[in-house]
Amino acid sequence: MTQTAVQLYSLRDLDESLPSVIERVGETTFDGVEFANRVPDADVDEIERALDQTGLTPAGAHVGLETLETDLSETVERYSRFGCDTFVVPYLDGDHFESLEAVESTADRLSAVASDLAAHGVDLHYHNHDHEFVACGDQTAMEALLERTDDAVGFELDLGWANVGGVDPVAFLERYADRVSFVHLADAEVGAGTPTELGEGDLDLENCLDAVGRAGIEWGIYEHDQPTDPIQSLSHGAETLEQLR
């Protein structure tokens, strides 16, 4: 059964400590949280306490590629203190996908970090936006990246951004299900590339939820990049992802 989580970036505008935000998530039906950019500035002991108190599981953490290349051991140690053993590179700009040579270089960097992390018992994933689906020869740059990375590199497929990028997210998930452990269930208006509440944009949510279930995805993670009301969006996301159970 797919577990559900929320990407805490969705709640970044709450004027609360990270442990307090975790406690809010614990009041919903989410199984876990995916960390974003606040952990280095937070009290790790308090994060551990909040996770223990709520029963939430760390699904993973978004960590920049350069941080992993330059500060790997300290980063692993920090997150391991509260049981987080999966890192996700959340974003690389379009320069990394502008040509096949650029994609090959990106793939080499990701594969090298994945190898280093594996020695610490930590997995690495890459999270897409829409610009990875630019044409790259006779395929997309995202397809080229999948084919050129070591199998140790997993993928967190953002279904909403894939849709904005011009591919069928269900078909893409089915094709690469063996490389995808996590998905982001996020929605957007395709023409404008504007994030929306899940079910209010152009994502075929029903078919996506069915595909996630069929693929045996480990974590289905809710994210809204620009929620008007983060608390309402949190509740809405939890209720929507209940369909994965």
UniProtKB/TrEMBL annotation:
Alphabetical UniProt keywords: Isomerase, Plasmid
Domain Xylose isomerase-like TIM barrel per the UniProt entry, residue ranges: 27-242
GO molecular function: isomerase activity
Keyword set includes Isomerase: yes
InterPro entries: IolE/XylAMocC-like (IPR050312), Xyl_isomerase-like_sf (IPR036237), Xyl_isomerase-like_TIM-brl (IPR013022)
Coiled coil region boundaries: none
One Pfam assignment: AP_endonuc_2
Keyword hit for Isomerase: yes
PANTHER family with a match to the protein in the record: HYDROXYPYRUVATE ISOMERASE (PTHR12110), INOSOSE DEHYDRATASE (PTHR12110:SF41)
The protein, known as: Xylose isomerase
Species the sequence originates in: Halostagnicola larsenii XH-48
